[in-house]
Amino acid sequence: QVQLKESGGGLVHTGESLRVSCVGSGFSFSDWDMKWYRQSPGQERELVAAVTAADRYTYYIDSVKGRFTVSRDNAKNTLDLQMTNLQPEDTAIYSCATRHRIGGHEYHGQGIQVTVSS
Q1: Which conformational region is residue 102 in: left (phi greater than 0), alpha (psi within -120 to 50 degrees), or beta?
Q2: For the chain, which terminus, N or C, has the lower number of CB atoms within 10 Å?
C-alpha cells in the first residue's frame, strides 16, 4: 500500500535553514504528483508546495516563494523541501502527500514537526 515517511524536522532559529524529506513506497513514485502540506495549531492545513509527476511544474504558496524549494528524485522515491530564512510563522507540522497524476485518492504521511524560535 502507499506509504509516506517524513524526516528531517526539528528546532531552528529565525533566519536559519532546514530540509525536510519524504520517502514514498508502495506505488510507482514517478507517476504520482507530490505535495507538502503544513498545519499549525488551530489553523487549517495548507498546501505549501507541490511538484508534478514529470517534475515539470512546481507550485508554492505566496508566503514561502523565494524561501522554499521543492524537489523530487524519482530514482530514489524521495521528495524534499529545502526551507531557508525560516520565520516563526513557518512553525507547523509538515507532511507530504501524493496523488496519481490522473487523479484519485490523496495519501498523506504522518507529518513531522518544524519549530522556528524567535
Answers
A1: alpha
A2: N
